[in-house]
């Protein structure tokens, strides 16, 4: 049996300001730093074989703080843009509430939560899944199948894409899926990579 822990980065400065972030490289907020440190405390007792992260600073910093907190800074770490957040295109940097006033709550919800509708100039969740899932299958799953304990630090939508596959969620179910910042999500998987259990720590 292997263990896979997913963690969405701690609150970023633009999460705090209620802005669409996407690929813009914004830092953690003070609260986000505390969330990452708290996640490290929740993961005390885990021994990770390796870790994966997006190339964005908020995920990298969360991963660094978690690994520092559990005294495992020496493990192999691979960073790849395949794990980056959805690219929100023309919405990046815009305030979500103001965008809802301009385009309507329903349209903004469709852009944020639907599976295959792209925001203007950006990626849908389907587009995000088409880079996250091949990366998971080629770079991460082989270690899962070896029985290793893996940590992935990434983003709300890149992790939604992965959770959708791990839990075999439908397009309708993923619409309501929200992954909180800084909350470690533990999966236990069998020797074929099938999920046996999952829970937030």
From TrEMBL:
Its EC number is 5.4.2.11. SUPFAM superfamilies: Phosphoglycerate mutase-like. One of its GO terms (molecular function) is phosphoglycerate mutase activity. Keywords: Gluconeogenesis, Glycolysis, Isomerase. It catalyses: (2R)-2-phosphoglycerate = (2R)-3-phosphoglycerate. The active site is at 9 (tele-phosphohistidine intermediate), 85 (proton donor/acceptor). Substrate binds at residues 8-15, 21-22, 58, 85-88, 96, 112-113, 156-157. GO terms for biological process: gluconeogenesis; glycolytic process. Pathway: Carbohydrate degradation; glycolysis; pyruvate from D-glyceraldehyde 3-phosphate: step 3/5. SMART domains: PGAM. It comes from the Bacteria. The record marks 155 as: Transition state stabilizer. NCBIfam families: pgm_1. Catalyzes the interconversion of 2-phosphoglycerate and 3-phosphoglycerate. Belongs to the phosphoglycerate mutase family. BPG-dependent PGAM subfamily. This is 2,3-bisphosphoglycerate-dependent phosphoglycerate mutase. The lineage of its organism: Bacteria, Pseudomonadati, Nitrospirota, Nitrospiria, Nitrospirales.
